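Escalation from tier 1.

The customer reports that the assembly of two entities below gives different structure tokens on two consecutive runs. Tier 1 could not reproduce it. I'm attaching the input and our single run for tier 2 to review.
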Amino acid sequence: MKKRYFLAAAAILMSMNSCSGFLDQDPDKILTDNQVFSDATMIKSVLANYYGRVTWGQNISDSYSYTIIDEAAKSDGGPDTRQDFEDDRWRVYDYTLIRNINQFLVSLRATTALAKSEQLAIEGEARFLRAWTYFNMCRGMGGMPIVGDEVFEYVGGMDITTLQYPRSTEAEMYDYIISECSEIAEYLTETPSTNAARATKWAALMLKARAAVYAGSIANYNNKMANPIKTAGGEVGISADKAAGYYQTALAAAKEVISGGKYSLQLTKPDDRGKNFYEAICVKENNSEVIWSRDYIYPGQTTGFTQSNIPASHAEDIDRCYAGPILNLVEAFEYVNDRNGEIKVKDENGNYIFYENPEDAFAKKDPRLWGSIIYPGAEFKGSEVVLQAGQKLLENGKWVTLTGDADSKDANGLLITSVNGPAVNNNQYINKSGFFFRKFLDETPQSSTRGRGSDMWFPRFRIAEAYLIACEASFELGNNGQATDYINAVRERAGIQDLSSVSFDDIVRENRVEFAFEDHRYWDMKRWRLADKVWNGVTNDVNAQQWALFPYKVNAPGTPNDGKWVFEKQADHMSPYARNFQLKNYYNFINLDWINNNPKFVKNPYQ
Amino acid sequence: MKIISNILSFFLLAVLFTGCGLDNYEEPQSKLMGKVTYNGETLGLRGTNESVQLQIYQDGYAKHDPVAVYVNQDGTFEAMLFDGEYKLVTRNNNGPWVNDRDTVLVNVKGTTDCEVEVTPYFTISNESISLSGNTVNASLSINKIVSTATVSSVMLLVSKTAFVDEGTYIARQNLTTGAIGASTLSLDLSNNTDVAKATQLYARIGVKATGADQAIYSDVVKIK
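Tier 1 run:
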């Protein structure tokens, strides 16, 4: 019994003793403003956080983003039943990030830990990322509130209407982006950064050029529509008289980047233009092409694009063949000396054209096709990528088709269907369109494994865009000679014939093939107001439907065509519906919750 | 022991059964039935993919989200609502009619009928669609209602279900030079594998005005 009292007393004593303070440690994961902004490395790591938060739209960390438009089709699992585009497709509304950047700017301007020039350079980078964020919001929704450097603070009981900013006009938004870029171009370094991962003066000028050419084309092409898309307050729509000014701004900025001399249309392998094009975009070492990219690095920062999309014959892990480029895009690439890029599969009498090798069907194509897409018979990592849908047999004078499972062989040991496909079924891990991605597909060993991933970068601006913006702006300003010079610079590097003059369709097409899979096409089609015409929702339309190309090997012993290859074009069965871009899709809808929170917002047209 | 477990399971049952019911709102009971009309005639519209929408607002609440009401292909619509006064408006720039954001006031009490009167760019009359052999023949008269409107396309659509519109069809013939007044279209179905597989065929004619996001349609006709 006594022992029990003793224990109780001990317990009480111990409980009274606990306040020694050994638990009162400063947290090492929450830092105060003073701690961060008194150290240069810390400041840069905050900035790095913002760089990691600005990837939107089509990009390699989201493989399916390529199957939305007419660039690629889904290959894994069940069909892609997309017909319409969502009201919030690739919509960006990130005032959290803008507020964080503004908070950063307040403390950055007060710090003494950095030399003045470095302080300005970092301010330039932060403001560049803010302008890029506004740009991504604007191209989806039109004008949105411009909050400047203001950091909003809510104090209980205050009048919240002072925090509610109305939407700016679309023109004001582009003007703001352009003026920010002009200002920070003076702060930023002229020296290209490692792997183009950080913003430089040239990145700011590219953003300026792109914003200006977008604004110019909206001022121009929107007003040429039967029913121009605009709101009464100008939140959407720019008046036509502003077009010329924007094109001039775009031209001047693009010219400055070109004459700056830090970047050039990379041409290190003039004898192998296809490989040259691939390396200009996909290889980071000694790259003179890319101005700003989302860089990735192993370990830690990798993407699964290569793992998802590698051909089955070259796969290093379970995953493969998630999506494949489509014939629509392949045929947009010209031939070296022929502007009609159609793949010839039948002669004028409707008979098959027989090719010795599958790759012969793509002979003399724009070398950029090789650099962007793996077509049947092309090599990847030094070995051929076999794409064989089946065999063509001759029965009673008629061609019949024999197909099988992946990697199936007939009685004579001849391949029926390749492990890569293409196939018409709902199986996973087999191609359905007849093509694989090459652009952004990483050749590094182990980069297609789940464990490692790929550290392929994703270029956002590269020098070829400066040329094509200069071309477009010159063309719209009526200087066709200068436009022709700029487009020919890009075409010569690619390795195809020069043009003698430029038409609007030439510009559309050149952008499509040069920047395939680089998040240009969707926005270009929108700003040119072509999207509703090209993606018109008509079944089996040459553009709106997704098309596949199936290669077959002829198995007809004793006939002259035995062992040759034929091709068939067909609607891609994985994507049964034609893409239908409606007028309402030109601008994302404004979320009704935002309007409830801020009644000063107006809705977009068609909403 | 047995008694205790019996009592416990009784309590458990009681708890399970009393969980719901008290805190839920009653669902709306009143039905608003309406149609989109011009001169009293209902209009043929696209009834799939939420293409044609009306918006219902109710004043006096903090939030201003509209309730979206989807219009069927025969121009009718339905919504279940609570009794009360509502505002009905067409969605901005949506539909084959002149954009008009005038609101229709509706006092819903029990089952209520209403009409939303619009001014279409065109109407279709004297339409006839028939199948002879493998060819669909159609004739129609296009009446211009809005003097400034121009025809962007006239389409003859064939579908395997009773839903026929610009986005739901298996065969289609387009006339891009649609003249005002009478016109004819014919569509050859002989090489269409979807048609060969279909046991029933329905057809419809649509007329789209330049700059409009939707077409106006004739009635759906069963042709096979």
